[in-house]
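Worked Example 4.2. Read the sequence first, then its structure tokens.
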Amino acid sequence: MSSIEDCLRDILIGDVFVELEKDRILSTASLRQDLGVDSLGFVELKAQVEKRFGIVISEDEFTPENFSTISSLTGLINRHCGSGRSAQH
């Protein structure tokens, strides 16, 4: 598991209030359908990702494709930061 994915799980539990144990959140699970993230949750998720990774996600990037799973969001973060960057916990 990458540190980015681990940080995203922390954000989902601590800031978006997904009610699952961390190790039960699969990187391929649908954030909306499987984890129940709603519209406000996606806005909070975007804000927390920007804060913790020191990036700015444009409106063009704030799409269902980029925010569909932990894996897709990790790909977006990697495109911004490079694969070696870790979260700023």
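Now turn to a second chain, presented in exactly the same format:
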Amino acid sequence: MVNTVATGGCVLAAGTYWVEWKSFGTLASGPWAPPVTVLGSTGTGNGKQNQVGTWVNLVDVGPQDLPFEVKGTVNGGGGVSCGDIFFFNAKCNMNGAAQAMVKMSGDFSGETVGFDLDGDDYVINVLSNGTNSIAKLTVPHAGMGAHTIALEDPAGCYSPVNFNCQVDAPPDPEWDALWAEALNIEATALKAVPVETKIIGNYPNPFNPSTTIRYALSVDSPVSVRVYNMLGQEVATLVDGFQKAGEQSVVWHGVNNFGQSVASGLYIYRLQAGNTVMTQKMLFTK
């Protein structure tokens, strides 16, 4: 389950999910450890809770009813199912490396897939270009002879693949083309993840009637973007929730939290992502 909302009577499979909930009068979000049971719009469990802007581990908190929406899985929390995978195969390349690959339609970045090569387990991160996702395993010098690779997690989707590594193996154009496509998806995914969390800037600046604030996240994290006047008073909350790593943007239309147009002047927007806090100025003109 990725980027879906689970509300109403349902019981989620074991996994690590991120949720949004109301706590202490503010909207917060973060990881929530299994099991998570949705009963109407409330649930209980152990996890993390945003209190006064800090993350606090909750251990044995006991039942705690908080209204929340389950937004999706976090880091391989059972988010990839058999129905999501449309391709699984394995080969040995000309250099004697065992290779396995699964492909999925959609964005499953942050999830994991498990392989078994001759009894050894490998957990591989899923990478995505936003349209398709792949998880690929490469084990150099697997050794000449017969090998078996199984898709272990999710289990029961495909039969294990048996193949041979041999000296002077002939090229496999079909596999090489599929592997090259996977490398392109991988390169796109890795390029899309910034090395640091930062404010990119807003454009136009000065602006009227609106400006787009762009920022980069190096990791998935709770994010808030708020606008303040020069007196330090909060004017507008533009973002308050959990976002994935990558470049993000939000548009401010020069209105406050009540939908009223603000006065011309200098404003400060503040990005908080995890423990990172940054600010920048912008000028609203009429």
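Notes for the reader: The chain is about 5% helix and 50% strand. The chain has a mean pLDDT of 74.
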